[in-house]
UniProtKB/TrEMBL annotation:
It comes from Kaistia dalseonensis. Belongs to the class-I aminoacyl-tRNA synthetase family. Glutamate--tRNA ligase type 1 subfamily. Residues 5-307 form the Glutamyl/glutaminyl-tRNA synthetase class Ib catalytic domain. The lineage of its organism: Bacteria, Pseudomonadati, Pseudomonadota, Alphaproteobacteria, Hyphomicrobiales. Residues 115-133 have a biased composition (Basic and acidic residues). The gene is gltX. This is Glutamate--tRNA ligase. HAMAP family: Glu_tRNA_synth_type1 (MF_00022). ATP binds at residue 243. Its EC number is 6.1.1.17.
Length: 474
């Protein structure tokens, strides 16, 4: 009987959780859920100069926003350094590792010689078989593993297929630096083994690391986890994803107004597909996802597709759920805190009433916020450029007349206000748009908004007539 699947997400806290890391976490999470297994979280904080508490917080916050949970306590790699050193002692005792007394200058000379001879710069094994009694005084040794000198290392990769690396291309890598600190290569292997990780799913930029790490597994007599190295994400132009393409932190996507469920749906399809299904629930992703179905070629990030998908998810949410998502995201949106400060119970009610019209025109929560700004504007409204051009002298005189008509509407409803405005337009021989556009500009300060009669009802009789009056002229 096979062991339960255990995956892990293991970011380095030297910055935000970038979008590629978010997809790696999602693939680990989905595969664990699909197989009935578990996902663990390990923070690889061995780079003490660059690892920060703020970055750790941002990673955990990003995972929680994406809706990706993990089993048990978060493991911090640096705290496990004594265990990593213990494994090195075992390898030394078994004759599978050795002390290397090369100075930095000697190592540089080795690299220069290799380059001069057209070889890759690798350690030449100077201390592999030398007696430690020959060690120069005062030099603290690094500990290196004895890598196989011939044959080949084969990575049976679930995504890349069998990857064969000649052992002559792998040198005796350092396990423990001369200052006693474990290297990344060693720490990853020990932690994955001790945490019971059965499946390693990570970016294909780690593929060359895999062969080196397998040497440690085999030296310790440990079972090598099943590996899957997923292609990196590229920009729309096919170049490596950069900030100009969208290689931002997951937190930036929240600030741009994307919903976590839309992000999950978009990210899962960067490199994996289930037939022609574009939109899928989280439950469907879990049911359908298999790491073996991930493609080998890099996927391309496309903001237009993400926006369209997010717009779909916004429209699919109930009005109440979208209101809740919007309000909870306000602190992260540009200008959101200022808007939240204006969110009185009366404004909340107005916003709830406006949501049905707003969500039809918005693809992100930022667009929803921008569309809702007219609710919070103070009189007299500041007009944008298009609204100013609409409100020419003729339009302002029209507003004076329509204000009188609306003031006489007995019941302030969509139907009653629409009937009154239509009757007014017909009486003047005007198309409805010729009346609606000046009304929209006066009521919202913009040339676009939800349906103008919805706007009248949401604002209420007093505020609507006040705004129209501000822009009307005699």
């Amino acid at each position: 009987m096979s062991k339960p699947v255990v995956t892990r997400f293991a970011p380095s806290p030297t910055g935000f959780l970038h979008i590629g890391g978010g997809r790696t976490a999602l693939f680990n999470w989905l595969y664990a859920k699909h197989t009935g297994g578990t996902m663990l979280l390990r923070i690889e904080d061995t780079d003490r100069e660059r690892s920060t508490d703020a970055a750790i917080g941002a990673i955990i916050d990003g995972l929680e926003w994406l809706g990706l949970d993990w089993e048990g306590q978060t493991v911090f790699q640096f705290a496990r350094a004594p265990r990593h050193r213990e494994v090195v002692e075992e390898l030394l005792a078994a004759g599978k590792a050795y002390r290397c007394y090369c100075t930095p200058q000697e190592l540089e000379q080795m690299r220069e010689k290799a380059r001069a001879e057209g070889r890759a710069p690798r350690y030449d094994g100077t201390w592999r078989d030398r007696d430690p009694s020959e060690a120069p005084p005062g030099v603290k040794p690094a500990i290196r593993i004895k890598a196989p000198l011939d044959g080949e290392t084969v990575i049976h990769d679930k995504v890349q297929g069998d990857v064969v690396i000649p052992n002559k291309d792998l040198d005796d890598m350092v396990l423990l630096r001369s200052d006693g600190n474990p290297t990344y290569m060693l720490s990853v292997v020990v932690d994955d083994h001790d945490m019971g990780v059965t499946n390693i799913i990570r970016g294909d930029d780690h593929l060359t690391n895999a062969a080196r790490q397998m040497i440690i597994y085999e030296a310790m007599g440990w079972e090598v986890p099943i590996m899957a190295h997923i292609p990196l994400i590229h920009g729309p132009d096919g170049a490596k994803l950069s900030k100009r393409h969208g290689a931002l932190g997951v937190d930036a996507y929240r600030a741009m107004g994307y919903l976590p469920e839309a992000m999950r749906n978009y990210l899962v399809r960067l490199g994996w597909a289930h037939g022609d299904d574009e939109i899928m629930s989280t439950e469907q992703m879990i049911e359908w996802f298999d790491i073996a179905d991930v493609g080998r070629s890099a996927s391309r990030f496309d903001f237009a597709k993400l926006e369209n998908l997010n717009g779909h998810y916004m429209r699919a949410l109930s009005n109440e759920a979208l209101f809740d998502a919007f309000v909870s995201t306000l602190p992260y949106l540009p200008g959101g805190e200022a808007l939240r400060a204006k969110m009185t119970p009366e404004k909340e009610d107005q916003l709830k009433a406006a949501i049905p019209g707003l969500k039809e025109r918005a693809k992100t929560l930022v667009e929803l916020k921008d569309g809702a700004m007219f609710l919070f504007a103070e009189r007299p409204l500041a007009l944008d450029e298009k609204a100013s051009s609409i409100l020419d002298p003729d339009a302002r005189r029209l507003l004076r007349d329509i204000a009188g008509v609306l003031a006489g509407v007995s019941e302030w409803t969509v139907e009653a206000t629409e009937d009154a405005v239509k009757a007014f337009a017909e009486a003047r021989g005007l198309k409805l748009g010729k009346v609606a556009q000046p009304l929209r500009a006066a009521l919202t300060g913009r040339s676009t908004s939800p349906g103008i009669f919805d706007v009248l009802i949401v604002l209420g009789r007093t505020e609507s007539l006040g705004r129209i009056g501000d822009q009307a002229t005699s």
